[in-house]
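pasting for the record
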Amino acid sequence: MTSSSSATTIGIDFGTTNTVIAVTGPDGEVEVLRLAAPEGELAAFRSALSFQLHPGEDGRTPERVVQAGPWAIEAYAEDPLETRFIQSFKTFAASAAFTETVIDNRRYKFEDLLSAFLLRLRHHAGAAMDALPPRVIVGRPVTFAGGSPDPDLALSRYEAAFRRLGFNDIRYAYEPVGAAFFFARTLKTAATVLVADFGGGTSDFSVVRFEPSSEGLKSTPLARSGVGVAGDAFDYRIIDQVVSPQLGKGGDHRSFDRVLPIPQRYYAAFARWDQLALLRNSRDMRDIRALARSALEPDKIERLIEVLDDNHGHALYQAVSRLKFDLSRDEVASFSFVAGSVRIERSVKRSEFEAWIAPELAAIQTAVDEAIRRSGLEPSQIDRVFLTGGTSFVPAVREIFHRRFDPARVETGGEFESIASGLALIGREADIDLWSKRSSSGEAAQAAATAGR
């Protein structure tokens, strides 16, 4: 891979679960930015926001305090009842149905949430992000999460938020391509590489050919594919099977002289962590409270109300994450969700979990096969397979690749750092247009800036 400049380049992997920033120096070496957080130094900054309304002193107007990452989690843990906590908000970046949410009587569009998050991230990075280069390479999934995602809408929202951070040349590169550039640093000979990037909201795949040349390592994109399911979808299957039945799903309620099923839509919000926070402030909450009086099992609806009212979403997220981790190692694991007066515990077999996520596994398999087909290659012609992202540790996910490739060719690594590092390296490419592009709104802004010179 050839360098276009000796200037600093920056890559930002804004993920559903975590956000990572990497920079390259004049020598071309890439380094992931590490922040001093409450629990210690970290590279993966949780993609979460918290909003607290603090009372003003001496009768002055109350002050809205915004935090992000681990500081947002800390604020929520200290005062869950008075803190609006939002995570995984990337999942509605491409949704035209999401226009805004109201927090403390203030309206926030997606770009407002993202810019608030990025500005807090920059604040905590301190001197490391004081002098930003004009260009940033931002990762984007091959397929955005959600039903009927609009990638142009998502990138226009990204554009508005990153411009508020101070960048004026904003480029977007596919996340698995970023991971491919990171992995290519280990190559000693020519190789065709399939990269599988498993995030919280999407699973993305790219096939890239790397070849030695007099100018370094030449890279050629061959194919890409993606699907809007990944770790969060696995989480929902666990919640749907283990948690939601204890919160009233599948139960009945009385309506005058009839017995009717409890509406399933209340539990659909658990499919996306961001929607769980939004449900608390929706019109449905009034109906859910009424159900506590008419449900045949009112104690379960009371639990649901407590989970929503007391913002137990993060505790639930942690319980689900622990179970997934344990099932990646053991055939049987214990699920334990304890928050407030809510206590849900159950033993779960790995075989059960794999049966629950069968639809997502099938979608991932289809996307993998599509990337191979589009490359025009047989699986035997792909030299290396690089898996990255937390979901790559799920045995059933790894088995998808072991069935198609010699396991000796399948590697895992850089779970948090690979994409951001590769994005920063892409910023040094001589032919950067081959690997990244501006959004339509970014192109217009760049053209206007050029015309004004």
